[in-house]
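Suppose you are handed a protein chain with no further information: no name, no annotation, nothing but its sequence. What can you learn? This example shows the usual starting point.
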Amino acid sequence: MAGPKGPKPKHVPLRTCIGTGERHPKRDMARLVKTEEGHIVVDPTGKRSGSRGAYIVKRLDALEQAIKRKALEAEFEGPIPPGDLDVLRTYFSQF
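A reasonable first move is to predict its three-dimensional structure. Written in structure tokens, the prediction is:
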């Protein structure tokens, strides 16, 4: 009997970007969460509680696509506060 041919490849969870529609490893994505106060914030740990959550690939153009397509408003079921958009743009511009 032959043994296994090597270690089993590790499972890599994938998420779909709401900006581009592309699937990427979860590690390459930023999770956005709608807080209880209604603000949209980046969740660097991926574990923050919130009423809604979405993933965007860590690129400013992906965020801009999500804003232009109104994907953020659809995902979070309402308008995004302008101050929150400024904070998100600042965060995504560092990648």
